[in-house]
Every structure is written in C-alpha cells, then in structure tokens.
Amino acid sequence: MKHFLNMEGPFYRFLTRFVELIVLNCMFLIFCVPIFTIGASTTAMYSVTLKMVRNEESGVYNGFFQAFKKNFKQSTSIWILLWFTGIILLLNYLYLQLYDGDFTLLIIFSLLFFTFIHLLLTILVFPYVARFENTIRESMVNALKIAVTNPFQTIPVLIFSIGPVLLIFLSPHLFLVALYLSIFLGFSLVAYLNSFLFRNIYEKY
Q: Transmembrane segments in this chain: where (predicted)?
C-alpha cells in the first residue's frame, strides 16, 4: 500500500497524468477560440500526447506552445483547406436535394466516398503533422496512405474520435455529459488514447 501511494507509485502517476490532460484540454480549447487556429491547436495537443505515450515529455505548457508555434503555418493552411473542401461537400449535398437526374445514385456514392476521405484527413492529418515534417501535400497524402495500410489501427482511432460525437445525439442527458467532459477532459483524453495507436503505427515509419 505504501508503494502504491508514494511519489513513484501508480496512483501518483495516474493523478499526475489526469491533471496534465485537464490542463492540456483547457489549453487546446483556449487556442481554438479564433476558430481558424483549431488545426494548429490540434497539432500542438497531439504533439504533447504523442510525447506522453513515448515517455519523451517536455512539460505540457512548453510542449504545447513550442508545437503550436512550430506548426502554426502548416496546420492552419491544412485546416483552412479542410474547411473549404467541407463547404464544397455541404453545397453538393444541398444541390443533391434539388437534383432529379439519372445519376443520383452515382452522385450519392461519390459524395459519401469523398466525405469519408475528408473525415479521414480531418482526424489523421494533424497527428501526422505533429510527428513528421513534410509539405502540406505530402502530409495529407501520407496520412491517407498510413490509414489504408494500417486499417486495424485506424478503425479504433475513428471510433475514439467519432464515437463521442455520435453519442451526444442519442439523448439530452448524454449531450450534457459529453459537453461537461469536453470542457474539462474530453479532447485531450481522446488524443491521448489515439496517441497509443498512432505510436504503434508511426514506429513503422
């Protein structure tokens, strides 16, 4: 019991990590406020959590600020590009409501395919940028290649990332719980869990 509660014990390590994730979550939300910085903030958060799971930590504050500054330009450019393509997809879905031609089924499948690709990029590209140094194009292409070649690790990442979002639509109670958790821990916890999977994937490269 003494070993369990001492400064080097599992309880203290768990409590320390728990507090670090709360701090990281707050920093992530604060730096997302301008909206156009969400990409850079996500990259910075993953930069910290990827170091956590590799035991290469440099502190939450320093690690986040350094990664945010280092990847700001590239991550923001990718985020704006994803926003732009997302708006195009949305407009296509709206146009589909008015379309009454012979290629409706083909258009639906095409939209679903490109929506899935867009979703994959939105979830996978920022952790990739946090770990590797490439051009914007190379980062987006390589993130998709990694997803295709590592489906069994990618599927849990999608579940961890999308699952909480889907749950909030099931009931008002779950929505309030998800909102509360997101404010204090949700985003950093998802990034932390995903980082264990990303660590196993990225070690191959």
A: 22-46, 78-99, 105-130, 151-171, 177-198
Exposure string for 143-175, b = 16+ CB within 10 A, e = fewer? bbebbeebeebbeebbebbeebeeebeeeeeee
- The predicted model scores a pTM of 0.89
What is the C-alpha separation between 200 and 153, in angstroms, rounded? 8
Q: Which stretches in the chain have pLDDT values below 50?
A: none
Give me the pLDDT at residue 8, please: 62
- Tell me phi and psi for residue 41, to 5 degrees: -65, -40
pLDDT at 25: 94
CA-wise closest residue to 130 among 61, 204, 27, 199: 199
Rg, the chain, Cα only: 19
Residue type at position 200: N
